[in-house]
Amino acid sequence: MAEYNIDNPILFLKGTLDASAVSSRYAYDDSTGLGPSGTNIPLEYDITVNQIDAQDIGSSETRSGGSRAYTGLDIKTGDWVTTAFGTVCLQIVSITSKSETEITFKAKDVDAFSYKNYKTNSLGTAGVAEVAFFEVSDSGKPLIAGEDASAFFGDKVAVDLIQSRFAIQEEDERYRIEFDSAQTAVSESQVVSIDANGDLIPFGAAGASDFKLGYLTSLSYGNTIAYLKPFNTIIDDFAKPELLTGSKGEFYYASTVTPGTITTNSSLGSDKLYFQFKDAVPTVITASVVNSATAGGDTLIVNGVTSVSGARTTSEIVSDINGGTATHFVTASEVASTTALKSYDNSLTPANGDIVFVISVDSGANFVYPEITISDGSNNATVSFQTSDGTFPGLGAYQTVSANQMVTDINTACNAAGVNITASTETNTNGNNNAQFPKLVLTLNSGSGITITEFAVDAANQTFQQATAMPLTATATTDVTLRLTRADGGDIMLTGAGTFVNSNGIVSSSMGSPALLVMIEDEEGSGVAETGVQTRVDYNRNPSATSNDGDTTGLTITYTPYDDGAVIIKVNGLQVNLGDGAKDQGCYFSADGGTTAKTSAAIAAGDTLYWMGSIAAYQLETDDDIDFVYDASSNDV
Known about the structure:
The protein is mainly β. Helix content is about 10%, strand content about 35%.
């Protein structure tokens, strides 16, 4: 993520809003009421800002060198943009192009904070509103400085409002973690860890890591964002993310082979230093045009390494960049372009303002079914839209087919006929009833193209094209898109000469995230030294009845004994000898269904106790009382 570099002056640039359009909306119907079925608020905008004033600085250590100024070229993903009132703060999540005086980018109202607090997250009126760009510190504090700051805000209350926006998380000592999917295994107020997939799970639950992350304070945005009060220090800005070669759930050790370095191989390390609880989010830059090419005077410098010079095609650019990956840590690739048709392509608009068929205008007394054929160039499928999934808002007699139902009908017909086209939906921002009527998208998986032939109109006399605002043909493309990826989540800083860099999406990015680590402040990260403590969690338990040697008692040990300590088994208060890697005593522990007896030192949480009745001289009954007497780690109990 973009953060302040202490070696450089603080960036603060102002400009004028030139254009702003909603690009996505709040996606979840949750308690906020901001989702599709509620107020359906904007969350991300496509924005252009021009008339950016240069900011004079005193240092030559920046991109401008001896010119000693920040310009629009110094704005990067991860920076923030705000209004003169301080009420709206949006984070830049991608940049399409930038110059000294103009920048085009996408920005997000993170956590919908601005809208929740001020009922708006718009930067204002294009051509009128002034905006400013600023950075945040490593600890998340907004950095407001520079020659234009005082003049831009005027009223110091505006700066206080910005500081309040960032202070909430800081003063609450909460750490914000985003996940790709909803975290359904945990709830607020639990002590949490992670499972093998990197998802949050209650500490001590089956499949949980034995490392306590912290206390879960809250979940939001469809439970995909978790707020955690960590027990130990979280490191999210590791200086050299390329050194983090481990995976979630692994420990890093001080290397005993190369002093001063780290390793995930415990046999080559000594002290535990970090626990990795989230893998890196790669930094990705994707060109906004296809078939990118450099011209004769162009150069591209990737993280300080000159990588491309002169006229090069997309494939040659990929080869040139990948030749230096070991030095700049960036990998280039060609991504085949998708052949697709979408609602509103070619400036089409739906006949009645929404993407929808009407199959009955009299509450189902009579039906008219629209029909098409769809082809991938080789195979054809006939689709008749005969299933309504709702009624038109305010017109209950009008039974409708939204794009959601169209997707089902089209995919069913295409799968049956072997047509390599997939239908899907996309969030709509252009219609009158966007939450109910999303866009329709048809994607060619293979074939020479997409061809739609219209056969029958709907009850409102709409053709397929009139109802969906979709073109009827698309030829398969051979275009490719240039993509740059830094897998470790570190920055991709792009500079160079000519017109290639800083245009068409080829701009620097800091929107990846290095692997998230927890610093281990003692052997097990609990904040206090680990010791063995007596636990009574496995006392007074009733077994399954046994009748033969090797029968299971049905009882498992809850914790791994501390420091390979002994486990004493008592039946109705009397001690029974425990096998030590053999089945020669009254009972033994096993992790493989009773086949192999574990040694005393190898007993671990979850192992099951098995009974040897011929040696113990009696069998177990369900009303017997069994105690496991042992010490567990103070970090576990």
